Amino acid sequence: MNAPSQLHAHLTGSISRHCLHQIWTHKTANGSPLDLEDPLIAIPHGRVDYDIKTFFPLFSSYIYKLCNDVDSIKYSTRAVLDDFQKDGVVYLELRTTPRSIPQQGLSKDDYVKTVLAILQAHNENPSNTMKTFLILSVDRRNTVAEAEEVVDLSIKYRSAGVVGVDLCGNPAVGDVRIFTPVFARAKTAGLNITLHFAEIQESGTDQELDTLLSWDPDRLGHVIHVSDAFRARIESQHIGVELCLSCNVHAKMITGSFPDHHFGTWRHSSVPVALSTDDVGVFCSPLSQEYHLAATHFGLDRKQTLDLSERAADCIFTGEEQRARLRRIFSEWHE
Ligand SMILES: CNc1ncnc2c1ncn2[C@@H]1O[C@H](COP(=O)(O)O)[C@@H](O)[C@H]1O
């Protein structure tokens, strides 16, 4: 199944277990003082039933502790890009939360520079058909000052490939209203905005959704607990939606299974729908598989599946050059 644009993928959540295992093995062999189990034991192969309570601690209590230096960040970022490229993705907007690692003397600025250098090397390699750009994430746990730093870094590294700002993190945490001036500044600076939206009932209150829509977002992620009224507002503002089938089913963020996913509603809407993997390292369903699942459970034929991927390209955060490249690729697929 062709899977052209990947618009909602978290870098750290996209690292495969195999790659985490390689990093762990390398560090253990080099005598690094790691107090961590082998990833293949901590996150066993085939386990995808992480729910919203068990999912977020995976990062703070495991993966961030393992990928905690420049070498492991570079190695895992390269591996993530290779995995997407091998899956047939031709356009990737990868997102990540700037992280400092004081024990290594690594600042958030260093982290972003490190990731961007890997993206740039990937883009400059003529044998790679996938082009990659970066979105920087504000975590809902952040203070306003930390969120401002994410916007500062996004502005600073725009010319190096940062195309937007995201709001992510545990949806049960935080009051998004504190970030209103931060996202206003991002928007004024010309950055695109994507927001995790109504992932759980508690983050789907009218007050939170009103606040998020007041930031004039360009895209919304997940979009699960939304009333008809909010769905109508999203349509009238023509905001693209990033839908992650496997993540939502495995993490039990929706009731039921694939055929019950709200993709079934959004696909009939007028907005761009970008099927995405969210965290392929955790939920183990690459983008080609997500398109396959959508086609299987919603009875899409080849043309409808291609139309869906073309429609997603309407809401990419880069400009006409990338859109034209994608149009060329689509026209070959239609032949
Ligand atoms: C259910 N889906 C989701 N909802 C909300 N936030 C999510 C997420 N999946 C991942 N993240 C956010 O992305 C971080 C890991 O990647 P980066 O370190 O940023 O590259 C997680 O710590 C979480 O804040």
From TrEMBL:
Domain of life (superkingdom): Eukaryota
InterPro entries: A_deaminase_dom, Ado/ade_deaminase, Metal_Hydrolase
The name this protein goes by in its record: Metallo-dependent hydrolase
GO molecular function, one term: adenosine deaminase activity
UniProt similarity note: Belongs to the metallo-dependent hydrolases superfamily. Adenosine and AMP deaminases family.
Pfam families tied to this protein: A_deaminase
Keyword terms, alphabetized: Hydrolase, Metal-binding, Nucleotide metabolism, Zinc
Gene Ontology terms: biological process: adenosine catabolic process; inosine biosynthetic process; nucleotide metabolic process
Keyword Hydrolase: yes
Domain Adenosine deaminase: 6-327
Cofactor: Zn(2+)
Catalytic activity: N(6)-methyl-AMP + H2O + H(+) = IMP + methylamine
